[in-house]
Every structure is written in structure tokens, then in C-alpha cells.
Amino acid sequence: MTVKVLGISGSPRRHGNTETLLDAVLDGAREAGGEVEKIVLRSLEYASCRGCNACHKTGVCVIKDDLTEVFTKIGDADVLVLASPIYSMGITAEAKGLIDRAQYLWARKFILKTLYHTPDRTRRHKGIFVSTAGLGWENVFDAAFPAITAFFNTTGFEYWDNVIANDLDRYGGIAGHPTALAEARKKGRDVVNLLADIEDPGIAKT
Ligand SMILES: Cc1cc2nc3c(=O)[nH]c(=O)nc-3n(C[C@H](O)[C@H](O)[C@H](O)COP(=O)(O)O)c2cc1C
Prior knowledge:
The chain has about 210 residues and is of the alpha/beta class. It has helices at about 15-30, 55-60, 65-75, 95-100, 105-110, 120-125, 145-155, 170, 180-195, and strands spanning about 5-10, 35-40, 80-85, 125-130, 160-165. It is about 40% helix and about 15% strand. It has a five-stranded parallel β-sheet with strand order 2-1-3-4-5, sandwiched between helices. The structure holds flavin mononucleotide (FMN).
């Protein structure tokens, strides 16, 4: 059974530190036999959530744009790898824009109660957060984690692990980091190997 891995880059900078680290995870996943696709948010056209709350009644987002298809792909993925650099101690606007647009799924789960991710399904769907930061502070990623946790919960992925590298100002970028790229590649291999051994219980119950 093929493991589908979807990488989403939320960095506005093409082929910078964060997308390079994401690519290492995806390369590892490909090496282990995963079917890999990458989406770059800055190349898409999409709007922010309007907070109209129409989805509370319909379970559907009123906005139809490039994210509509992205959410279909998220629904089909076994592994979701969301990447964002740290901007102003949080995630980028690109990544947050995506996360807020998942509100229609939140509405299906908690208001309409038409979507339920079984524990078996969630166990078979892993989320990985990839991030980079300039500063050497130990806590530099802390403000990002809650939004990522919320996103993986809403979309039905178990928050499996982080692939994070900080102090990049000192290292002169991700290429200068002593271990991050090799660890990222290994993580990509590991998650595909792990899921290849777990039977897919199918889609979410609706
Ligand atoms: C607008 C902006 C805000 C940033 N804010 C922070 C920050 O708050 N803390 C930090 O450690 N690094 C910060 N950085 C540095 C980036 O997190 C770091 O250079 C990261 O590796 C960039 O990833 P990229 O190459 O994918 O753009 C900021 C960079 C930019 C452009």
C-alpha cells in the first residue's frame, strides 16, 4: 500500500532554509517508497478566512480558490508535512492563512458533528511540522506549536513530530547546520516505513 506524502511550504522565500528542510523530509519519504507531492503556498492565489461562519450551517467554505483543491489533497494524504519559518515569533501569514481556512472542517466536527476522525484513522495519518528560525533561543518555536496542533487535529492527523532547526543566523543558513538536513531525510524515511506497516482503516466517518 503506497504511502501518500503531501508537503506544504508556507515560506514566502522559494528554496530558502525552510523549503530546503522540507525537501529533505520529502526526499527521505521518496527514498522509502512514498508517493510525494509538494505544494508551495506563495505560488497559489487564496483568500483569508472571512469569519462569515456560513460553514457553521453548511460545513462548506464559501470561498472557492486555490486552497479548495489543497484541502482535497490534504484529505487524500497519509502524511502531511507543513513547513513554515518563524516570522515575528510565529508562523508565516501564508501558513496561517491555510490553517484558518480549515475552519469549515472544525465546523463539521464540532458544530455540525458530521465529521469524525476515528482513533484508528488518526493513528494511520501522521503530521510533521518543519520549521527554521534565525535565533538560537530554545523557545523560538513555542508560539508556532499551538496553531500547528490545532491544524493537525482539525484535519485528522496525529501530530507525529517536528523537524526544526534554529540558530540559522549563526550557521549562515540551513546548509551550514551540522545535522538538520540528514535528520530531516531520516524522518521522511521513518514515517513512510512506519505507515507502510499500519493498515489503512479508510477515510473519515462522515
Ligand atoms: C519577516 C521576518 C521575521 C522573522 N522573525 C524571526 C523571529 O521572530 N525569530 C527568529 O528566530 N527568526 C526570525 N526570522 C528569521 C527566519 O525565521 C529565518 O531566517 C528562517 O530560516 C527563514 O526561512 P526561509 O529561508 O524559508 O525564509 C525572521 C525573518 C523574516 C524575513
